[in-house]
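Weekend entry, working from home. Most of the wet-lab plans are on hold until the incubator is repaired, so I used the time to fold the two sequences that have been sitting in the queue since the last round of cloning. Logging both here for the record. First:
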Amino acid sequence: MTTQGVRRKHIFVTLGKIFTVFIAIVSLTAASAAQSWPAGKLSNTLISTTRYPGCEGGSYWERIYGDWVYKDSSGVAHSFGSGTSEWWQYVGDGPCESYCNNFNAWSTDGKGYYLQTNCSTGTISIEATVFPKYHILSLLYDAPGNQSSNGFTDTTFYGTTNSIGSSFSSGVTLTFTATGGIFGLGSGYSTSVGFTEGYGTTNAFTNTFYSGQGLTLKSTRNPIDHTNDTFWLWLNPEVAITQTGASAASYLVSPPSGQVMDAVRVSVAEMQNPSTIPLAVLEPITINGVVYPGLSNVCAHPLPPSQCTQANACGCVASDFSHILGTDPIISISGNTPPSQTDSKRYFPLNPSPSPFPYLEYGTTDTITVTDASQSSQTQTETSQYQTSYSTIWGSSSTATPVDWTLQWRLTDTFTWTQNVSLTNFSGTQHQMTLILGTSTSGCDAAIDVFEDYDYHTFVESYASTPPTPCDSN
């Protein structure tokens, strides 16, 4: 078997860490009590009051507030350091304005409380940062013909739509906050692929391929072999969750602050037999002094780098990848079995068929643009899910749970990604890939049907009828 994608693909973020917009939850004066979530009390101390001459014959009162403390619903006090808020209040008849010099800060105990001041008042919100082990960016399918390939063209490509709501208890409302940022490849690896999150509904985001000509899967056999199907996995996703009410939160998905988007490609066959996964994919890698996880970080018992070899798969076993493999339900089909027979809601035949009609023929190489531009939009009720382990911090560094964090995980040991099966063309942009059909085997001539995976919006080929015997050979 030919090993593909040995080199790591690293996706560089052009933005720093962007937190979700903090929604005003509690607005308090120095002595008032909270009237809404979180149930607590924010207080401060008026440090000084000084009057200064102002413009137009008026004057300014400078009031400095410090010692900001939030006492949570259990009576535990959380300080925000020595920062102060200054309120310059103009007194007079001139056109001069009052203004504030405010400050924002995390609680010094790292418990996830965030303070935003506004003159003498303040706002408290709570944030948790979740680090899932991986996120599936895309899935490419093996094409028939030992000289064939299947991949993205150089266009904006909208992939699967994702949400995280199933990770929480029922009744929790989540809102996705789009960044609009583009994460491009660089550093000598490739300049052909970019990912971004920024399209979708208020509670879901869509993986978008900004430029996709580098995502190509080459076939190695004439028979369709779905163990050659290949995943793109994002290994360092970060989900910043801000609680905005007793049962509501907003979230943002991005790489950690200052990091690149670390993505690798790995085939079904490699995950079924981890000792065949290239060591460059399994091992951690260091970029600009920052250590990024390798694929072995997904595994339950990864070995330390000093013991990591390809032969021992750095401690990975096939069962470590079961959740990933479960998102490809057609691994075992072959020949002319249509993928719609396995899942009729996820896989649809292209209608109209590509033109010219795809045909695999010895001595001829056909390059076909496969697109759903003329396909009628469809939205299915079916969704797919996969789960991964995760780690969590609250605020800037602490692993302790904030007292007032009332959202509950549905599963305490797993994080759930939910994918929606639908066909949506954003701003008139269709999903488009390039299919190259070719074979070196004489007598292997067969018509090819094309289906769309409405989950990842990639395309799946199958023989239109029982292929001739030469197509059963390599």
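Second, folded right after the first finished:
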Amino acid sequence: MVRTDTFGKKRIDYIIRARGFDDYRWIVPREDIAVARWVRFRCMFGCGEYGRTGSCPPAAPTVEECREMIGEYENAVILHFSADLSSRDDKCALMSGLLDLERGIFLDGFYKTFLLQFADCVFCETCAAEGTREKCADKIRCRPSTDAMCVDVFQTARKAGYAIDVLKTRAEIPNRFAIILID
């Protein structure tokens, strides 16, 4: 078993900062990540991407599978981004950076490392998955979002000490959060 004691966390802190991420906090998944059924319903009834990508429901695991998988981890970091990511290129760049971070932590010996993205997958110009993992054209880089994994981002971010509120206008810059599960 790979240790994520103080020494391990310091190594991971170095990897995170070396890749330019500085707004993050350590959390304990079983205690700090809120998994809730309402998040899946919000995906089903309120998201235009539902059923269109290989990382979103219904291609995502069930609520119980999400809760169980997240509960298997002892450590995680929640990363915060407050940036205008209105273009697909901006989202792709940030998602690529997060995947590079996931890989860096993995290569340092934390073999269970798994990224929950801040948004639905945008790597392909047009997603061919049609709501199934089988048809996904980029299975290597495609990761589920926190929403697809039924994470109540508001409650989880607040438990980690971040201030987050519902945006009232499209002119406001959203807070975005990704989570890297680590063991």
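Plan for Monday: verify the second prediction. The chain has a mean pLDDT of 91.
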